[in-house]
């Protein structure tokens, strides 16, 4: 069945919104390349299946949390991972994909443009492609660029004030150190920790001086410490952690190692680490706060 972008008064127009009581289901075409009048082929039973998937995985298993799922996301993946891809060039309509969102009535759909998970997934696909190519050079966009965009969106509350494809301006006030002394955290466990133990991006957490907050899942531990008492958003912590995972734990150019993120440019003399100066300007953490990702037994918070 063809669904047409911009035909909101049609039963087969996009965006398509359906609501009942405190629940809203939104079907939308997403991506910078979508155009007015563009059509996509969708089977109604597939749409119902997508809604059921979100309801089961988010509302049921996560206790009433809304969520979204994509259809045709491979269109965008194929575009950004093409050898000649250029983030500064217009995206073609063929790179568009569909999102189905289940939320409350007051929710804000459009996750295809404003949810940080989209650039994270694109960055992961680019990273995997680099691994499979054994690090050979390519003109494809850098996966770190997508992680950076996602991290900045997390700082803006998890969704961001601008779509993920908008170029991000940043200053160089953060340092990210990769240090083999911190062991080899497991990538999969760090991902599980990020999605199961960190709070909502806009929520805050208080870190007392000398009393680090330690979170752990399997082979991945993170310690959030402060030299003076501080209150920080989970979004800032997520931003720092995402950068550390991308640069240190899951960097295809090196073996998995732990790392530390902090505000400022000071590096402890003698530390076997490196500063990611090229992409370190996220200002994810306030002064006096550190985030360390490490393998159990290799670091004492």
Characterise the protein shown here.
This protein has 301 residues and is α+β, with helices and mostly antiparallel strands. 28% of the residues lie in helices and 24% in strands. The chain has helices at residues 44-60, 74-80, 111-114, 117-132, 143-155, 187-197, 234-249; strands spanning 2-5, 13-14, 16-20, 23-30, 39-41, 67-71, 97-103, 174-179, 204-207, 213-217, 220-226, 230-233, 258-263, 289-294. Strand 10 and strand 11 form a beta hairpin. The protein is globular, with a radius of gyration of 20 Å. 37% of the residues are buried. Mean pLDDT is 82; it is low at 266-281.
List the SSEs and their pairings.
Layout: E1 2-5, E2 13-14, E3 16-20, E4 23-30, E5 39-41, H1 44-60, E6 67-71, H2 74-80, E7 97-103, H3 111-114, H4 117-132, H5 143-155, E8 174-179, H6 187-197, E9 204-207, E10 213-217, E11 220-226, E12 230-233, H7 234-249, E13 258-263, E14 289-294
Helix pairs in contact: 4-5, 5-7, 6-7
- The pLDDT mean sits at 82
Tell me the strand order in the biggest sheet.
8-13-14-11-10
Termini gap: 57 Å
Query: Tell me about the biggest sheet?
Result: 5 strands, antiparallel
Low-confidence stretches: 266-281
What's the number of helices? Answer: 7
Number of DSSP strand runs: 14
| String of helices and strands | EEEEEHEHEHHHEHEEEEHEE
What structural class do helix, strand and pairing data support? alpha+beta
The shape is globular
Helix content: 25-40%
Residue share in β-strands: 15-25%
Oligomer: single chain
Radius of gyration: 20 Å
């Amino acid at each position: 069945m063809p669904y047409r972008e911009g035909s909101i008064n049609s039963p087969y127009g996009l965006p398509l919104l359906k609501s009942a009581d405190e629940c809203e289901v939104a079907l939308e075409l997403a991506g910078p390349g979508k155009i007015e009048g563009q059509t996509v082929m969708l089977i109604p039973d597939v749409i119902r299946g997508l809604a059921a998937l979100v309801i089961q995985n988010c509302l049921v298993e996560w206790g009433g949390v809304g969520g979204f799922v994509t259809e045709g996301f491979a269109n965008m993946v194929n575009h950004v991972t093409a050898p000649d891809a250029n983030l500064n060039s217009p995206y073609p309509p063929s790179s568009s994909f569909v999102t189905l969102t289940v939320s409350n009535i007051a929710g804000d759909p459009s996750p295809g443009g404003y949810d940080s998970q989209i650039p994270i997934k694109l960055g992961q696909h680019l990273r995997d492609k680099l691994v499979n190519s054994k690090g050979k050079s390519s003109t494809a966009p850098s996966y770190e660029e997508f992680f950076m965009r996602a991290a900045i969106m997390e700082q803006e509350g998890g969704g961001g004030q601008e779509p993920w494809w908008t170029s991000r301006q940043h200053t160089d006030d953060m340092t990210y150190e990769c240090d083999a002394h911190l062991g080899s955290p497991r990538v999969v466990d760090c991902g599980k920790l990020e999605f199961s133990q960190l709070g909502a991006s806009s929520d805050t957490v208080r870190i007392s001086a000398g009393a680090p907050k330690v979170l752990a899942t399997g082979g991945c531990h993170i310690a959030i410490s402060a030299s003076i008492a501080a209150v920080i958003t989970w979004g800032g912590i997520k931003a720092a952690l995402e950068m550390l995972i991308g640069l240190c734990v899951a960097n295809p150019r090196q073996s998995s190692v732990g790392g530390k993120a902090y505000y400022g440019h000071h590096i402890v003399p003698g530390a076997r680490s490196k500063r990611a100066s090229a992409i370190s300007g996220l200002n994810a953490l306030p002064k006096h706060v550190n985030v360390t990702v490490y393998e159990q037994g290799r670091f004492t918070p």
